[in-house]
Amino acid sequence: MFQRQPVARRLSWLIVAGAVAITTACSSSGSGGSSNSGSTSAATSGTTTSTPAGSSSAAAAKPTGAPFKIGAIYQAAVGAAATETDIKMMSAWVKYTNDHGGINGHPVEIETLKETGNLGVALKDVQQLVGDGAIAILDKDVGDDAAWVDYVKAKKIPVFVNAFPSVAMAQNPLAYSTATSFFVVGNQTAAATVKAGGKKLGILYCAEAPQCAQVVDPVKAAAAPRGAAVVLASKISSSAPNYTAVCLALKNAGADSVYIAASGAVPISVAGSCHQQNYNPHFIGIDAGFANSYAKAPGMQNMIGVVSNRPWITTDTPGAKTMHEAVDKYAAGLFDDPNFTEQAVVHWTLGELIREAAVAGKVGSTAPLTSAALVDGVYALGSTDIGDLTPKLTFTKGTPQVITQNCWFYMAPKDGKWATTYGTEPECKKAS
Q: What is the pTM (predicted TM-score) of this model?
Protein backbone atom coordinates (compact mmCIF):
# COMPACT_ATOMS: atom_id res chain seq x y z
CA MET A 1 0.00 0.00 0.00
CA PHE A 2 1.33 3.42 -0.88
CA GLN A 3 1.61 5.83 2.00
CA ARG A 4 0.20 9.32 1.82
CA GLN A 5 2.86 12.04 1.69
CA PRO A 6 2.86 14.35 4.73
CA VAL A 7 0.90 17.53 4.11
CA ALA A 8 3.94 19.74 4.71
CA ARG A 9 5.95 17.90 2.07
CA ARG A 10 3.14 18.18 -0.47
CA LEU A 11 2.65 21.88 0.28
CA SER A 12 6.34 22.52 -0.24
CA TRP A 13 6.43 20.69 -3.55
CA LEU A 14 3.45 22.51 -5.06
CA ILE A 15 4.67 25.90 -3.91
CA VAL A 16 8.17 25.50 -5.30
CA ALA A 17 6.60 24.33 -8.54
CA GLY A 18 4.35 27.39 -8.67
CA ALA A 19 1.03 25.56 -8.91
CA VAL A 20 -2.30 27.41 -8.84
CA ALA A 21 -3.61 25.82 -5.65
CA ILE A 22 -2.11 24.03 -2.70
CA THR A 23 -3.99 20.99 -1.56
CA THR A 24 -4.19 20.19 2.11
CA ALA A 25 -6.34 17.14 1.55
CA CYS A 26 -5.26 14.49 4.02
CA SER A 27 -7.41 11.52 3.09
CA SER A 28 -5.53 8.25 3.26
CA SER A 29 -8.37 6.08 2.07
CA GLY A 30 -7.24 3.52 -0.45
CA SER A 31 -10.67 2.92 -1.87
CA GLY A 32 -11.13 4.23 -5.35
CA GLY A 33 -14.87 4.60 -5.16
CA SER A 34 -14.96 8.31 -5.95
CA SER A 35 -11.66 8.62 -7.77
CA ASN A 36 -13.25 8.24 -11.16
CA SER A 37 -16.05 10.71 -10.70
CA GLY A 38 -16.00 12.91 -13.75
CA SER A 39 -14.19 10.27 -15.80
CA THR A 40 -14.77 10.78 -19.46
CA SER A 41 -14.07 8.97 -22.68
CA ALA A 42 -14.13 10.89 -25.92
CA ALA A 43 -13.80 9.75 -29.50
CA THR A 44 -15.08 11.79 -32.38
CA SER A 45 -14.51 11.47 -36.06
CA GLY A 46 -13.00 13.84 -38.22
CA THR A 47 -6.62 15.31 -39.31
CA THR A 48 -4.90 14.43 -42.46
CA THR A 49 -1.74 12.69 -41.43
CA SER A 50 0.30 14.81 -43.78
CA THR A 51 -0.89 18.10 -42.26
CA PRO A 52 2.13 19.88 -40.74
CA ALA A 53 1.96 20.64 -37.04
CA GLY A 54 0.16 23.90 -36.39
CA SER A 55 -1.41 24.29 -39.81
CA SER A 56 -5.05 24.30 -40.77
CA SER A 57 -6.70 22.23 -43.43
CA ALA A 58 -10.13 21.25 -44.63
CA ALA A 59 -11.73 18.29 -42.89
CA ALA A 60 -10.25 15.01 -44.07
CA ALA A 61 -11.75 11.58 -44.45
CA LYS A 62 -13.22 10.08 -41.31
CA PRO A 63 -10.60 7.95 -39.53
CA THR A 64 -11.53 4.29 -39.61
CA GLY A 65 -8.62 2.44 -37.98
CA ALA A 66 -8.44 1.03 -34.47
CA PRO A 67 -8.62 3.74 -31.80
CA PHE A 68 -5.46 5.60 -30.82
CA LYS A 69 -6.01 5.51 -27.05
CA ILE A 70 -4.60 8.06 -24.62
CA GLY A 71 -5.16 7.94 -20.86
CA ALA A 72 -5.26 11.17 -18.86
CA ILE A 73 -4.97 11.46 -15.08
CA TYR A 74 -5.55 14.54 -12.94
CA GLN A 75 -5.25 15.16 -9.22
CA ALA A 76 -8.75 16.47 -8.54
CA ALA A 77 -7.79 18.25 -5.32
CA VAL A 78 -5.46 20.70 -7.07
CA GLY A 79 -6.83 23.66 -9.04
CA ALA A 80 -10.22 22.04 -9.66
CA ALA A 81 -11.69 24.95 -11.64
CA ALA A 82 -8.62 25.33 -13.83
CA THR A 83 -8.53 21.56 -14.36
CA GLU A 84 -11.91 21.78 -16.07
CA THR A 85 -10.47 24.24 -18.60
CA ASP A 86 -7.58 21.81 -19.19
CA ILE A 87 -10.02 18.99 -19.90
CA LYS A 88 -12.06 21.17 -22.25
CA MET A 89 -8.89 22.07 -24.16
CA MET A 90 -7.91 18.42 -24.51
CA SER A 91 -11.40 17.57 -25.71
CA ALA A 92 -11.13 20.31 -28.35
CA TRP A 93 -7.80 18.84 -29.47
CA VAL A 94 -9.32 15.37 -29.81
CA LYS A 95 -12.29 16.63 -31.81
CA TYR A 96 -10.14 18.80 -34.06
CA THR A 97 -7.68 15.97 -34.68
CA ASN A 98 -10.40 13.50 -35.53
CA ASP A 99 -12.18 15.95 -37.80
CA HIS A 100 -8.90 16.18 -39.73
CA GLY A 101 -8.31 12.47 -40.23
CA GLY A 102 -7.25 11.31 -36.77
CA ILE A 103 -3.68 10.15 -36.23
CA ASN A 104 -2.42 8.16 -39.20
CA GLY A 105 -6.03 7.27 -39.98
CA HIS A 106 -6.85 6.20 -36.42
CA PRO A 107 -9.50 8.04 -34.37
CA VAL A 108 -8.16 9.42 -31.11
CA GLU A 109 -9.85 8.37 -27.89
CA ILE A 110 -8.98 9.88 -24.53
CA GLU A 111 -10.07 8.43 -21.19
CA THR A 112 -9.84 10.92 -18.33
CA LEU A 113 -9.68 9.99 -14.65
CA LYS A 114 -9.49 12.27 -11.62
CA GLU A 115 -7.80 10.76 -8.60
CA THR A 116 -8.62 12.01 -5.13
CA GLY A 117 -5.15 13.06 -3.99
CA ASN A 118 -4.33 9.56 -2.78
CA LEU A 119 -1.25 7.65 -3.95
CA GLY A 120 -2.92 4.23 -3.93
CA VAL A 121 -5.88 5.51 -5.94
CA ALA A 122 -3.54 7.22 -8.39
CA LEU A 123 -1.76 3.94 -9.10
CA LYS A 124 -5.04 2.08 -9.54
CA ASP A 125 -6.29 4.74 -11.93
CA VAL A 126 -3.22 4.51 -14.14
CA GLN A 127 -3.44 0.72 -14.09
CA GLN A 128 -7.03 1.07 -15.27
CA LEU A 129 -6.03 3.42 -18.10
CA VAL A 130 -3.34 1.03 -19.27
CA GLY A 131 -5.70 -1.91 -18.90
CA ASP A 132 -8.19 -0.07 -21.09
CA GLY A 133 -5.60 0.10 -23.85
CA ALA A 134 -3.92 3.49 -23.47
CA ILE A 135 -0.57 3.58 -25.29
CA ALA A 136 0.33 6.97 -23.78
CA ILE A 137 -0.48 8.73 -20.50
CA LEU A 138 -1.18 12.46 -20.14
CA ASP A 139 0.05 13.40 -16.66
CA LYS A 140 -1.37 16.18 -14.53
CA ASP A 141 -1.29 14.17 -11.34
CA VAL A 142 0.68 16.81 -9.44
CA GLY A 143 3.34 15.05 -7.38
CA ASP A 144 1.23 11.90 -6.92
CA ASP A 145 2.61 10.52 -10.18
CA ALA A 146 5.51 9.27 -8.06
CA ALA A 147 3.10 6.49 -7.07
CA TRP A 148 2.84 5.11 -10.58
CA VAL A 149 6.04 6.11 -12.35
CA ASP A 150 7.68 2.73 -11.71
CA TYR A 151 4.61 0.98 -13.11
CA VAL A 152 4.65 2.87 -16.42
CA LYS A 153 8.44 2.56 -16.67
CA ALA A 154 8.14 -1.21 -16.32
CA LYS A 155 5.44 -1.21 -19.00
CA LYS A 156 7.56 1.14 -21.18
CA ILE A 157 4.62 3.48 -21.66
CA PRO A 158 5.45 7.09 -22.64
CA VAL A 159 4.16 9.81 -20.33
CA PHE A 160 3.38 13.30 -21.64
CA VAL A 161 3.80 15.60 -18.68
CA ASN A 162 2.22 18.94 -17.85
CA ALA A 163 4.10 21.24 -15.49
CA PHE A 164 4.94 20.28 -11.90
CA PRO A 165 5.37 16.48 -11.88
CA SER A 166 7.19 14.63 -9.12
CA VAL A 167 10.98 14.53 -9.24
CA ALA A 168 10.69 10.81 -9.94
CA MET A 169 8.56 11.46 -13.02
CA ALA A 170 10.86 14.26 -14.20
CA GLN A 171 13.72 11.77 -14.13
CA ASN A 172 11.77 9.17 -16.12
CA PRO A 173 13.55 8.78 -19.51
CA LEU A 174 10.18 7.99 -21.14
CA ALA A 175 8.55 11.21 -19.90
CA TYR A 176 8.22 14.14 -22.30
CA SER A 177 6.91 17.67 -21.84
CA THR A 178 6.20 20.94 -23.62
CA ALA A 179 6.37 22.80 -20.27
CA THR A 180 9.37 24.55 -18.78
CA SER A 181 11.23 22.48 -16.20
CA PHE A 182 10.24 23.25 -12.62
CA PHE A 183 13.94 23.25 -11.75
CA VAL A 184 14.29 26.74 -13.26
CA VAL A 185 11.56 28.48 -11.23
CA GLY A 186 14.23 30.51 -9.43
CA ASN A 187 15.73 31.59 -12.74
CA GLN A 188 12.30 32.46 -14.16
CA THR A 189 11.49 34.62 -11.12
CA ALA A 190 14.78 36.51 -11.30
CA ALA A 191 14.53 36.95 -15.06
CA ALA A 192 10.95 38.25 -14.81
CA THR A 193 12.06 40.80 -12.22
CA VAL A 194 14.67 42.21 -14.59
CA LYS A 195 12.40 41.95 -17.65
CA ALA A 196 9.82 44.15 -15.88
CA GLY A 197 12.50 46.72 -15.09
CA GLY A 198 13.02 45.73 -11.48
CA LYS A 199 16.14 44.99 -9.47
CA LYS A 200 14.86 44.50 -5.92
CA LEU A 201 12.77 41.43 -5.30
CA GLY A 202 10.54 40.49 -2.40
CA ILE A 203 9.49 36.90 -1.75
CA LEU A 204 6.48 35.91 0.31
CA TYR A 205 6.06 32.25 1.16
CA CYS A 206 3.40 30.34 3.09
CA ALA A 207 3.72 29.96 6.83
CA GLU A 208 1.80 26.70 6.90
CA ALA A 209 4.86 24.51 6.32
CA PRO A 210 8.55 25.21 7.02
CA GLN A 211 9.50 23.75 3.64
CA CYS A 212 7.76 26.62 1.86
CA ALA A 213 10.86 28.72 2.50
CA GLN A 214 12.80 26.46 0.13
CA VAL A 215 11.84 28.72 -2.75
CA VAL A 216 14.00 31.57 -1.42
CA ASP A 217 17.54 30.30 -2.00
CA PRO A 218 17.06 29.33 -5.70
CA VAL A 219 15.71 32.82 -6.42
CA LYS A 220 18.60 34.48 -4.58
CA ALA A 221 21.11 32.39 -6.51
CA ALA A 222 19.53 33.23 -9.87
CA ALA A 223 19.02 36.93 -9.11
CA ALA A 224 22.66 37.92 -8.56
CA PRO A 225 23.95 37.04 -12.07
CA ARG A 226 21.12 39.13 -13.53
CA GLY A 227 21.93 42.21 -11.45
CA ALA A 228 19.01 41.77 -9.07
CA ALA A 229 18.76 40.98 -5.38
CA VAL A 230 16.23 39.66 -2.87
CA VAL A 231 15.65 42.52 -0.41
CA LEU A 232 12.98 40.85 1.71
CA ALA A 233 11.82 37.27 2.22
CA SER A 234 8.94 36.74 4.61
CA LYS A 235 6.43 34.06 5.47
CA ILE A 236 2.73 34.87 5.37
CA SER A 237 -0.39 33.10 6.56
CA SER A 238 -2.86 32.02 3.92
CA SER A 239 -5.70 32.84 6.34
CA ALA A 240 -4.58 36.37 7.25
CA PRO A 241 -7.45 38.93 7.16
CA ASN A 242 -5.23 41.32 5.20
CA TYR A 243 -1.59 41.82 4.20
CA THR A 244 -1.14 45.51 5.00
CA ALA A 245 1.86 44.98 7.29
CA VAL A 246 3.83 42.86 4.84
CA CYS A 247 3.01 45.26 2.00
CA LEU A 248 4.43 48.15 4.01
CA ALA A 249 7.51 46.07 4.82
CA LEU A 250 8.03 45.34 1.12
CA LYS A 251 7.53 48.99 0.25
CA ASN A 252 10.01 50.14 2.92
CA ALA A 253 12.55 47.59 1.66
CA GLY A 254 12.27 49.09 -1.82
CA ALA A 255 11.00 45.90 -3.45
CA ASP A 256 9.91 46.71 -7.00
CA SER A 257 8.93 43.09 -7.74
CA VAL A 258 7.22 40.45 -5.60
CA TYR A 259 6.97 36.69 -6.00
CA ILE A 260 4.34 34.98 -3.84
CA ALA A 261 4.80 31.29 -3.16
CA ALA A 262 1.33 30.54 -1.86
CA SER A 263 -2.08 29.36 -2.99
CA GLY A 264 -4.01 30.89 -5.88
CA ALA A 265 -6.23 33.16 -3.73
CA VAL A 266 -3.40 34.63 -1.69
CA PRO A 267 -1.60 36.62 -4.44
CA ILE A 268 -4.80 38.48 -5.30
CA SER A 269 -5.38 39.27 -1.62
CA VAL A 270 -1.80 40.49 -1.19
CA ALA A 271 -2.01 42.64 -4.32
CA GLY A 272 -5.28 44.14 -3.09
CA SER A 273 -3.79 45.04 0.29
CA CYS A 274 -0.70 46.56 -1.34
CA HIS A 275 -2.86 48.53 -3.77
CA GLN A 276 -4.68 50.08 -0.82
CA GLN A 277 -1.29 51.34 0.38
CA ASN A 278 -0.55 52.87 -3.04
CA TYR A 279 2.14 50.24 -3.49
CA ASN A 280 1.91 48.43 -6.84
CA PRO A 281 5.04 46.37 -7.55
CA HIS A 282 5.52 43.90 -10.36
CA PHE A 283 3.85 40.78 -9.02
CA ILE A 284 5.27 37.67 -10.68
CA GLY A 285 3.13 34.68 -11.65
CA ILE A 286 4.47 31.46 -13.16
CA ASP A 287 2.41 29.10 -15.37
CA ALA A 288 -0.55 27.88 -13.29
CA GLY A 289 0.33 30.49 -10.65
CA PHE A 290 -2.02 32.98 -12.33
CA ALA A 291 -5.25 32.86 -14.30
CA ASN A 292 -7.28 35.08 -16.61
CA SER A 293 -8.94 36.69 -13.61
CA TYR A 294 -5.66 38.22 -12.45
CA ALA A 295 -5.63 40.66 -15.36
CA LYS A 296 -8.47 42.64 -13.76
CA ALA A 297 -7.53 42.20 -10.10
CA PRO A 298 -6.75 45.38 -8.10
CA GLY A 299 -3.00 45.83 -7.67
CA MET A 300 -2.09 43.49 -10.51
CA GLN A 301 -1.77 46.14 -13.22
CA ASN A 302 2.03 45.85 -13.10
CA MET A 303 2.08 42.06 -13.00
CA ILE A 304 4.36 40.00 -15.23
CA GLY A 305 3.34 36.44 -16.04
CA VAL A 306 5.79 33.70 -17.02
CA VAL A 307 4.43 30.96 -19.30
CA SER A 308 5.88 27.78 -20.77
CA ASN A 309 4.23 28.13 -24.18
CA ARG A 310 3.59 31.12 -26.41
CA PRO A 311 0.95 33.39 -24.79
CA TRP A 312 -2.53 32.12 -25.57
CA ILE A 313 -3.64 35.54 -26.82
CA THR A 314 -1.39 35.30 -29.89
CA THR A 315 -2.72 34.09 -33.26
CA ASP A 316 0.20 34.89 -35.58
CA THR A 317 1.98 31.53 -35.75
CA PRO A 318 0.83 28.31 -37.44
CA GLY A 319 0.41 26.49 -34.14
CA ALA A 320 -1.50 29.34 -32.52
CA LYS A 321 -3.83 29.67 -35.50
CA THR A 322 -4.67 25.97 -35.36
CA MET A 323 -5.28 26.05 -31.60
CA HIS A 324 -7.57 29.08 -31.85
CA GLU A 325 -9.45 27.54 -34.78
CA ALA A 326 -10.10 24.42 -32.72
CA VAL A 327 -11.14 26.30 -29.58
CA ASP A 328 -13.45 28.60 -31.53
CA LYS A 329 -15.23 25.58 -33.00
CA TYR A 330 -15.22 23.06 -30.17
CA ALA A 331 -14.82 25.08 -26.93
CA ALA A 332 -16.07 28.58 -27.71
CA GLY A 333 -15.31 31.09 -24.95
CA LEU A 334 -12.62 28.94 -23.33
CA PHE A 335 -9.91 31.59 -23.69
CA ASP A 336 -12.15 34.03 -21.78
CA ASP A 337 -12.83 31.71 -18.84
CA PRO A 338 -11.67 33.46 -15.61
CA ASN A 339 -10.04 30.20 -14.49
CA PHE A 340 -8.09 29.66 -17.71
CA THR A 341 -4.36 29.22 -17.13
CA GLU A 342 -1.25 28.37 -19.12
CA GLN A 343 -1.78 24.71 -18.30
CA ALA A 344 -4.58 24.45 -20.83
CA VAL A 345 -2.22 25.62 -23.58
CA VAL A 346 0.33 23.03 -22.45
CA HIS A 347 -2.41 20.42 -22.81
CA TRP A 348 -2.90 21.42 -26.44
CA THR A 349 0.82 21.30 -27.21
CA LEU A 350 1.16 17.92 -25.49
CA GLY A 351 -1.60 16.60 -27.73
CA GLU A 352 0.20 17.97 -30.76
CA LEU A 353 3.47 16.45 -29.56
CA ILE A 354 1.81 13.04 -29.38
CA ARG A 355 0.42 13.52 -32.88
CA GLU A 356 3.75 14.68 -34.33
CA ALA A 357 5.61 11.77 -32.72
CA ALA A 358 3.06 9.29 -34.05
CA VAL A 359 3.38 10.72 -37.55
CA ALA A 360 7.20 10.67 -37.38
CA GLY A 361 7.14 7.07 -36.18
CA LYS A 362 4.35 6.01 -38.57
CA VAL A 363 2.48 4.62 -35.58
CA GLY A 364 -0.50 2.58 -36.74
CA SER A 365 0.59 2.62 -40.38
CA THR A 366 3.89 0.90 -41.17
CA ALA A 367 4.65 0.65 -37.42
CA PRO A 368 2.28 -0.99 -34.93
CA LEU A 369 -0.17 0.98 -32.81
CA THR A 370 1.84 0.52 -29.62
CA SER A 371 3.61 2.42 -26.87
CA ALA A 372 6.99 1.22 -28.15
CA ALA A 373 6.29 2.58 -31.63
CA LEU A 374 5.21 5.92 -30.15
CA VAL A 375 8.43 6.16 -28.13
CA ASP A 376 10.40 5.44 -31.31
CA GLY A 377 8.39 8.21 -32.95
CA VAL A 378 9.43 10.74 -30.30
CA TYR A 379 13.08 10.11 -31.14
CA ALA A 380 12.40 9.99 -34.87
CA LEU A 381 10.86 13.44 -34.47
CA GLY A 382 14.01 14.62 -32.71
CA SER A 383 12.91 18.21 -32.17
CA THR A 384 9.90 20.46 -32.70
CA ASP A 385 8.40 23.79 -31.70
CA ILE A 386 4.76 22.70 -32.25
CA GLY A 387 4.16 25.23 -35.02
CA ASP A 388 6.07 27.91 -33.06
CA LEU A 389 3.87 27.47 -29.98
CA THR A 390 6.81 26.36 -27.84
CA PRO A 391 10.52 27.02 -27.61
CA LYS A 392 12.51 24.38 -29.47
CA LEU A 393 11.97 21.01 -27.81
CA THR A 394 14.68 18.38 -28.27
CA PHE A 395 14.30 14.65 -27.55
CA THR A 396 17.41 12.53 -27.06
CA LYS A 397 17.14 8.89 -26.15
CA GLY A 398 18.16 8.22 -22.56
CA THR A 399 17.99 11.89 -21.54
CA PRO A 400 15.22 12.99 -19.12
CA GLN A 401 13.77 15.69 -21.37
CA VAL A 402 11.40 17.04 -18.69
CA ILE A 403 14.45 18.35 -16.84
CA THR A 404 16.17 19.98 -19.83
CA GLN A 405 13.42 22.32 -21.07
CA ASN A 406 14.68 25.70 -19.84
CA CYS A 407 12.94 28.43 -21.90
CA TRP A 408 9.74 30.43 -21.37
CA PHE A 409 7.61 33.42 -22.53
CA TYR A 410 6.04 36.47 -20.87
CA MET A 411 2.57 38.05 -20.57
CA ALA A 412 1.30 41.16 -18.80
CA PRO A 413 -2.08 42.79 -18.06
CA LYS A 414 -3.15 45.80 -20.10
CA ASP A 415 -6.52 47.48 -19.64
CA GLY A 416 -7.87 44.42 -17.86
CA LYS A 417 -6.72 41.94 -20.51
CA TRP A 418 -3.55 40.01 -21.18
CA ALA A 419 -1.02 41.45 -23.63
CA THR A 420 2.38 40.57 -25.05
CA THR A 421 3.96 43.67 -23.53
CA TYR A 422 7.38 42.02 -23.39
CA GLY A 423 7.29 40.53 -26.87
CA THR A 424 6.82 36.97 -28.03
CA GLU A 425 10.38 35.68 -28.18
CA PRO A 426 11.32 33.09 -25.56
CA GLU A 427 13.87 33.72 -22.85
CA CYS A 428 16.08 30.92 -21.55
CA LYS A 429 17.98 30.05 -18.40
CA LYS A 430 21.46 31.53 -18.33
CA ALA A 431 24.30 29.05 -18.40
CA SER A 432 25.72 28.53 -14.93
A: 0.87
